Amino acid sequence: MSTALTVRPFANGDSTAWATFVQGCADATFFHRIEWRDIIEQVFGHRTHYLLAERRGEVAGVLPLAQVKSLLFGHSLVSLPFAVYGGAAATDEDARAVLHEAAVKLARELRVDHLELRNRAPHNPGWPQQDLFVTFRKGIEPSVQANLEAIPRKQRAMVRKGMQRGLASEIDAGMDRFFELYADNAHRHGTPPFPKKYFESLQRTFGDACEVITVVNGARAVSSVLSFYFRDEVLPYYAGDVADARELAANDFKYWELMRRACERGYRTFDYGRSKRGTGSFDFKKNWGFQPKSLHYEYQL
User: What is the radius of gyration, based on Cα positions, of the chain?
Assistant: First the structure.
C-alpha cells in the first residue's frame, strides 16, 4: 500500500542498499548505478538529489536526479543528465508514484524551470512529453555466426568489407586513442566534446563495466567506441572515427566486433542506444535490423 511508503534523500551509508536494489530491479538501467552520483558532482559540478522510497525499511524504489544550471538549457531537475535513460526504478507503481510526487515537490522547492524524467516507458500520461527520441535494442543470438547472418545483407556486406580490408579490433586500457577520435569527430560535427577527464573518470569508476574497443587499419586507429555493460546487456555509448571511416567500413566493423565479443562473453542484449528520429544515426541502426522503440521523456513545467 502507498500509505506504507516513505521517501527520503540518499544518505551516507546507503550506497550498498542502492546498488543491490538497482542490480535486482527490472526497471533499473546502467544509469541508475549509484556511481553516477559522484561523476555528475565531481566532474561536472552539478548538485545531485537522489531519492529512495522505502516500505517497512526495505528499498522499494530509487530516483536519481541532478540539478542543472545552463545558459543554453536553463535551470532544470533531470533524471538524468548525460544519460539516455532515467526516471524512477521501482518494484511497483505505488513506489514509483511517491517518488514522482517527491520529485515534483523538490522541483518546486528548488524553483527550477522544469523537471525532466527520461523514461523508457510512459508513466505519467497527463504530463507533457517529448517524443523525438527512440532507442534500439535487440537480442544477441547465442552464436557468432547467427549474429552475423542476422545483420541485413547490405550492412553485412559492409562488415565483410572491413574484414577484407584487414581491419582489427583491440581493447584499450586507456582513453588516449578513443578520446582523440571522439574529440575530432565532435569538432567535425560542430559539437563541443566532453572533457577527457570525464571519460577517464568513467573508466576508473566502472572498471570492467566500461570498455573501449578501437578499430585499427594497420598501425592507424580509425574508429573507437566506449561501451557500458550492465547485467546481460552491452550499450555502446560514445564513439569517434576518422573522416574516411565510412570508406573503410570501419564503423560497421566496429559495432560487429563489439557484438561478436559480447556474444562470446555471454551477453544477451545489444542496446544500440538513443537516436533522434530522421537522423543518419537513426537510419544506420535501422539498417542493422534494429527496430526503433519510442522513449518517453516526461516533464513538469
Answer: 20
Reply yes or no on whether the pLDDT at 2 is more than 60. no
pLDDT band at 231 (very low <50, low <70, confident <90, very high): very high
Strand order in the sheet with 210-217: 168-172, 210-217, 220-230, 233-241, 269-276, 133-139, 292-294
Core vs surface per residue 162-193: b (16+ CB within 10 A) or e: beeeebebeebeebebbbbbbbebeeeeeeeb
- Please report the pLDDT score of residue 70 as a whole number: 85
Residue 107's contacts (CB-CB under 8 Å, 6 or more residues apart) are 77, 114, 115, 300
Q: Which candidate, 91, 24, 10, 106, places its Cα nearest to that of 55?
A: 91
**Amino acid letter, residue 69:** K
Give the three-class secondary structure for 259. helix
Give 67's strand partners.
47, 77
pLDDT digits (tens, 9 = 90+) for 87-100: 999 999 999 999 99
Cα-based distances in Å from 275 to 11, 85, 236, 295:
35, 12, 12, 10
pLDDT in tens, 124-183: 999 999 889 999 999 999 999 999 999 999 999 999 999 999 999 999 999 999 999 999
At 46, list the grid cell: 552539478
Q: Provide CB contacts within 8 A for 236, sequence distance 6+.
A: 225, 226, 227, 255, 258, 271, 272, 273
- Of the candidates 30, 203, 181, the one whose C-alpha atom is nearest the C-alpha of residue 118 is 30
